Amino acid sequence: MFEELKKKILKSSLLWSIILIIAGLGLAGWNAMDAFYAATGYVSFTQLTPDQIKSQLVDIDVTEAYGCFLIEGEENTKTHQQKITHLYYIIPTGDIYATDYRYMSIRVPASYESKMDAISDNTGNGIISDPLRLSGKIKKLSSEDYSYFESYFKEAGFSDEEIAQATIPYNIDVFASKASMSGVYIVLFGAGVALLIFGIFRIAKVAGGSSLKKLRKDIAATGYSESMIDSDYHSAKSFDKKGTLKIGRLMTYYISGSDARAIPNNKIMWAYQNTVTHRTNGVKTGTTYNVMIFDEITPKGHSFSVANESIAQDMLALINTMLPWVVVGYSDELKKLYNKDRSQFLQLRYNTCEHIAAEPAPASSGDSPVGGQP
Question: Taking the model in full, what pTM does it have?
Answer without folding.
Answer: 0.60
